[in-house]
Write a structure and sequence with these properties.
InterPro entries: AB_hydrolase_fold, Peptidase_S28. This is Extracelular serine carboxypeptidase. Belongs to the peptidase S28 family. Keywords: Glycoprotein, Hydrolase, Protease, Signal. The chain is an alpha/beta fold. The protein contains 16 helices and 10 strands. The strands form 2 sheets. An 8-stranded mixed β-sheet has the order 1-2-4-3-5-6-9-10, sandwiched between helices. Helix 2 crosses helix 16 and helix 13 packs across helix 14. The longest helix has 19 residues.
Length: about 500
């Protein structure tokens, strides 16, 4: 199927618009006491290149980043694809507490009380009924016009929750790699890497981790010290900081200073091959003798057994990670240390702080080592490691305090793996690190796909890979092209039924 390519609006011509958004949508909910009637300026951007009167409005949910960082979705990605196919208008709404859409000048525990899932999805519904689009004639607010949401990852979950909660207002949505099921510990993050990555690389890491964990279990402080020194990381006193640092090429808990498996992508403009570069270095058969000799240095701690590819692994860390510190102390929070409560208590507005707050209060999914079987990260990395950051970052305020562990019900009461809403499509990738908290999780029940409740699992795809495009469907890899064509067909089917749709929102309420 060929789609016409019309002249596109240049991204530099996406001016920022703002809407006065209520900080508190729920004045009767004691969770937000003592409440506020104030508003904040929430940014949004739109592209009307393809729009024709009567066309749908595609609301791209910004997620845990700034609005401008999502421009590619209007330029070449899924919103552009859908706009082009259906004469739609595309909008990016920046999430509250991200980009420049912060309700307050700082982010204290009390000020973050309004950063919740239900407040965020209420923004989406309010926006759909109150936003204005300069240059567009007529009223295209919901439910007068069909509004179709799209989001990936956290924004995918917010898309799903929005369509379910406000289905009488928002016509439909596509939830891509939507993390709809909340758990506390999430060792499954590493499962696709364990299964699909080059197995000689995987085996090498598994065996090295096993041997390090044996040293920890035996409280062999001398062996642990020698092991750290091989990586040039002996200054990291906390074993967990050390374990996270050497796991960075794979994916450290909450922190990703280098690109990981999650950053793989079919589109080289947005993806990175760093993970495969890492594995190629770990399994290098032609490493010089001074590197391979490292493999036997710690054999005295493993009954004479070599630590295969330890030299390659350590060399990669020293060459790729250590320079990131740029001369600052390795155990500082400017490098690889985390044991600094003052650092986390900084209330300066930032995406990292907002994301940590949501993780600590509602989302969970702390990356940890699996309880049994092979592991790509040390077993010292467990829930308490991440939880300490929550406690340091968000001390009890006057009105708000975080739970001892995330209250997962704030997420799961929408449905979890049993999630269902009319005109809500779920699309996932089977090599995604977040798959097992998504609709197509290996723990989810089997379901039938229908036009009202469509679903698609892309074989060989990672984290919301369908959100990327190249302005030429025919030139895309077949598995991505077919996913995009499916999304177009799905939305076109929905749009055919819009005139007969009975919204439960009266126009007088808009």
């Amino acid at each position: 199927m060929e789609l016409s390519l019309e002249r596109r609006q240049d991204a530099s011509q996406y001016p920022a618009h703002t809407i006065d958004m209520p900080i508190d949508h729920f004045p009767n909910n004691p969770r937000y006491a003592p409440h506020t009637n104030a508003t904040f300026s929430q940014r949004y951007y739109f592209d009307s290149t393809y729009y024709k009167p009567g066309g749908p409005v595609y609301l791209y949910i910004g997620g845990e980043t700034s609005g401008p960082s999502r421009f590619s979705n209007l330029e070449t990605g899924i919103i552009q694809i859908l706009m082009n196919a259906t004469n739609g208008l595309g909008v990016i709404l920046e999430n509250r507490y991200y980009g420049e859409s912060f309700p307050y000048n700082t982010s204290t525990t009390d000020q973050l009380v309004y950063l919740t899932t239900e407040q965020t999805i209420a923004d989406n519904a309010y926006f759909a009924t109150h936003a204005t689009f300069p240059g567009i004639k007529g009223n295209i607010s919901a439910p007068i016009s069909p509004w179709v949401l799209y989001g990936g990852s956290l924004a995918g979950a917010q898309t799903a929750f929005s369509v379910k909660q406000y289905g009488g207002l928002l016509y439909g949505g596509i939830a891509s790699s939507a993390v709809i099921h909340a758990v506390l510990a999430y060792p499954e993050w590493y499962a696709p890497i364990q299964k699909f990555a080059p197995q000689d690389c995987v085996t090498s890491i598994n065996n090295i981790v096993d041997k390090f964990d044996a040293l920890v279990a035996a409280n062999n402080t001398e062996g642990i010290k020698e092991f750290k020194a091989i990586f040039g990381l002996e200054a990291l006193v906390d074993n967990r900081d050390f374990a996270m640092t050497i796991a960075f090429p794979i994916g450290g808990p909450m922190n990703y200073p280098t690109n990981t498996w999650q950053e793989l992508n079919w589109n080289s403009t947005y993806g990175s091959q760093d993970f495969f570069h890492f594995c190629s270095n770990v399994t290098n058969l032609d490493a010089p003798e001074n590197i391979t000799a490292v493999d036997t240095v710690l054999s005295k701690y493993s009954n004479g057994e070599a630590w295969s590819n330890l030299g390659n692994y350590a060399q990669y860390v020293k060459q790729t990670l250590l320079p990131l510190c740029d001369g600052v102390p390795i155990d500082s929070t400017s490098c690889f240390g985390t044991q600094n409560q003052t650092f986390y208590a900084d209330t300066t507005n930032s995406a990292a702080r907002s994301y940590l707050y949501s993780t600590c209060t509602e989302q969970g999914a702390y990356q940890v080592a699996p309880a049994t079987g092979p592991s790509l990260i040390s077993r010292v990395l467990q829930v308490n490691y991440t939880q300490q950051w929550c406690e340091w970052a968000f001390p009890k305020g006057k009105f708000n305090s975080i739970p001892s562990t995330p209250n997962l019900n704030y997420y799961n009461h929408y449905g979890g793996f049993n999630f269902s809403a009319d005109r809500l499509a779920f699309i996932d990738g089977n090599i995604d690190v977040w798959l097992d908290v998504c609709y197509h999780s290996n723990d989810a029940p089997a379901r039938y796909s229908t036009d009202l409740h469509p679903e698609y699992l892309i074989a060989g795809a990672g984290h919301h890979w369908d959100s990327y495009g190249i302005l030429d469907l025919d030139a895309e890899p077949q598995f991505i092209e077919q996913a995009h064509l499916w999304e177009i067909r799905t939305v076109r089917k929905w749009l055919r039924s819009f005139k007969s749709w009975k919204s439960n929102v009266r126009h007088s309420e808009l």
